[in-house]
Specification:
Elements: E1 6-7, H1 23-35, E2 41-43, H2 55-69, E3 75-79, H3 84-97, E4 101-104, H4 116-130, E5 134-138, H5 147-156, E6 160-165, H6 169-180, E7 185-188, H7 194-199, E8 204-205, H8 208-212, H9 214-225, H10 229-246, H11 251-261, H12 278-287
Helix pairs in contact: 1-2, 2-3, 3-4, 4-5, 5-6, 9-10, 10-12, 11-12
């Protein structure tokens, strides 16, 4: 298994005005991140509007990432589906297209949220059927994976190997660490506190801020691993305020507007994420007035 640690930007999915994926713009974002020195690529996550992508589009995104990353750098593909059977089918498509690992969310629709045993069945079935490294994407507020369940999955399945801890922020990541120790891999997703997450045991980040600022995040990671905590935290501090203006509802369109201000064309969002108010634009613009 390829080492999945370090910086993995969740690549923005650039869409054309008609809703089709714009391969050229997506490839440009991948190349931008790779030139910055990231350890691999992640596609079809929340930042990439993964829930809107059909199985065939997952295949296409993985193949494009595989082409850009080459054989050495890992490719992670998000799988966001509403039932076990659909998640298995999507996971097989992504695996067969060349994904080295699958980042799989719990089911999200609120009246269909299962209990803890149901989620154990979900991930254990995926492990058995896909036979591919699985990173749990713990991002669904109404269906969180508890530290106890993560610990059980690490011990009772073959392929669940890590968790991207998004919901609950830094305290939730620390709770995972205290439960599982060094047994499973923890991936940071608290965008404005990545260095803090590394201090608490995260083995890297699969985090939107890495897609927005790959060079800065690679430098932060490098400084942390070199023991230069002052430099790592200085970069975290520098990114804090700009990130506050990007984060929020309709996150993909906010991020794409910020990237536009940075001179990067990432196309449209897929409907219905189509409108960003003038006031929200002004807030983002003010945050990047002195950015270089």
């Amino acid at each position: 298994m390829k080492a999945i640690q370090g910086m993995f930007p969740p690549i923005v999915t650039a869409f054309k005005a008609n809703g089709d994926i714009d391969d050229k713009l997506v490839a440009a974002e991948m190349d931008f991140a790779l030139r910055a020195g990231v350890q691999g690529l992640s596609v079809a996550g929340s930042t990439g509007e993964g829930p809107t992508l059909c199985d065939e589009e997952l295949r296409d995104m993985v193949q494009l990432a595989r082409e850009r990353a080459g054989d050495e750098r890992p490719v992670i593909c998000g799988v966001m589906r509403g039932c076990t059977r659909d998640a298995v089918r999507a996971g097989k498509v992504a695996r067969d297209a060349g994904a080295d690992a699958l980042m799989i969310t719990p089911t999200a629709y609120n009246v269909l949220v299962p209990d803890e045993q149901g989620m154990f069945d979900f991930y254990s079935t995926l492990s058995r059927e896909l036979e591919t490294p699985i990173i749990i994407y713990n991002v669904i507020p109404q269906n969180t994976i508890t530290p106890r369940l993560f610990h059980r999955l690490l011990n009772e399945t073959e392929h669940v190997m890590g968790i991207k801890q998004s919901v609950g922020g830094v305290p939730a990541l620390y709770a995972m660490k205290m439960e599982v120790g060094d047994q499973g891999r923890l991936y940071a997703a608290t965008d404005d506190m990545l260095a803090t997450c590394y201090t608490l045991g995260a083995c890297g980040a699969i985090s939107a801020v890495v897609a927005a600022f790959p060079a800065e995040c690679v430098e932060m990671w490098t400084a942390f691993n070199a023991g230069d905590l002052a430099r790592a935290y200085a970069i975290q501090d520098r990114l804090y305020k700009p990130w506050q203006c990007i984060a929020g509802n309709q996150f993909p369109i906010r991020l794409k507007y910020a990237l536009k201000l940075l001179g990067r064309d990432t196309g449209y969002c897929r409907s219905p994420i189509t409108h960003l108010s003038d006031e929200e634009k002004r807030q983002i613009e003010r945050a990047f007035e002195n950015w270089d």
